[in-house]
Inverse folding.
């Protein structure tokens, strides 16, 4: 944990106005911390360990900015503990379901995120799961490592083709579109859902076959592989449950790199055991880091520890963007990516709500 420095430093016997304070809930890669240190008094957790909630509540009073990660629950209690000085919550992630957005907006606290910089990296990881689950990569690796590989025979380790199949994209946003672009090289046709309707024709790559589905069931029934790319919200929690899984083709594959609770994990376990699903590739979990009972025992799964954006290049870009979002907000400048810009109007008019 970082200690506090005095609120006013002295130079030639004259007190200087204190620097704004930022509380960081976890160590982030360069250039994030150096950028913050140029502007802020840096407080919080600069270790690679989880921050205890009591440490967060004890350390945040009086700060101007909070830089957090998806594992941190930033609710009205945290905002109330920070007090009226808190101007920005900079989330080191694209998703922001860990932050109580209405509570932040009511207090005039800007919430920012880090989209765009992790799009291609997460799309790569989705394809690793698509191929890994379809071709039983994790099973094969475990078999060889355990010394049980005895040579091949005609029915040994049979997986499923990816080339020429139908890929369903649930949520054709930045990441979903990046995943779909990669499907061209595999000769796949793509069906997709998109909350704002079909993509403009000019957004479809040359030679690609992309078709918009107005209903999720239509997509699930048409797809050999389904990749999930929607944010978590009340509307998308358990978007894919037992009924939806039953609609999918026998032997189909589902991949999730968005948020775990978009899929009903208990229903997913049952569908992998009894059908219709053939396999699943998951990077996120409903009650992360805990898994639903039975999930880890299933051989037809590839299970990763939420590493969709985990490359050196991407995590560094995320750190820079999260730091610059916080810096811009405390300086009164436009942040690159704000989730609730209406919070600024609240702050400007000095409206406040009681702590809950």
């Amino acid at each position: 944990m970082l200690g506090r420095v005095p609120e006013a430093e002295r130079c030639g016997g004259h007190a200087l106005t204190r620097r704004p304070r930022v509380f960081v809930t976890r160590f982030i890669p360069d250039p994030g911390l150096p950028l913050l240190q140029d502007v802020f008094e840096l407080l919080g957790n600069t270790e690679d360990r989880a921050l205890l909630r009591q440490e967060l509540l004890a350390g945040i009073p009086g700060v101007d900015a909070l830089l957090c990660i998806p594992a941190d629950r930033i609710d009205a209690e945290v905002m109330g503990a920070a007090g009226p000085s808190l101007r920005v919550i900079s989330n080191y992630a694209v998703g922001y379901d860990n932050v109580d957005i209405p509570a932040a907006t009511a207090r005039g606290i800007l919430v920012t995120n880090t989209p765009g910089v992790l799009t291609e990296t997460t799309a790569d990881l989705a394809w690793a799961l698509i191929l890994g689950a379809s071709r039983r990569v994790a099973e094969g690796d475990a078999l060889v490592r355990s010394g049980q590989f005895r040579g091949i025979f005609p029915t040994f380790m049979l997986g499923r083709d990816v080339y020429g199949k139908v890929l369903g994209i649930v949520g054709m946003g930045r990441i979903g579109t990046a995943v779909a672009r990669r499907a061209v090289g595999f000769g796949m046709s793509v069906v997709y859902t998109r909350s704002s309707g079909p993509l403009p024709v000019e957004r479809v790559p040359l030679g690609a076959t992309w078709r918009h589905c107005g209903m999720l069931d239509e997509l699930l029934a048409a797809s050999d592989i389904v990749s999930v790319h929607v944010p978590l919200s009340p509307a998308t929690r358990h978007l894919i449950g037992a009924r939806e899984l039953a609609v999918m083709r026998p032997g189909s594959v589902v991949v999730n790199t968005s948020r775990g609770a978009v899929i009903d994990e208990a229903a997913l376990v049952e569908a992998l055991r009894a059908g219709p699903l053939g396999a699943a590739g998951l990077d996120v979990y409903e009650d992360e880091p805990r898994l639903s009972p039975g999930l880890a025992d299933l051989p037809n799964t590839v299970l990763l520890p939420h590493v969709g954006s985990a490359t050196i290049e991407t995590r560094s870009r995320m750190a820079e963007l999260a730091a610059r979002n916080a810096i811009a907000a405390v300086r009164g400048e436009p942040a690159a990516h704000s989730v609730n810009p209406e919070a600024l109007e609240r702050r400007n008019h000095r409206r406040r709500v009681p702590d809950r």
Summary: The first strand starts at residue 10 and ends at 11. The first helix runs from residue 32 to 39. The chain has two domains: 10-117+313-348, 119-303. Residues 119-303 form a domain with the Rossmann fold fold (CATH 3.40.50.720).
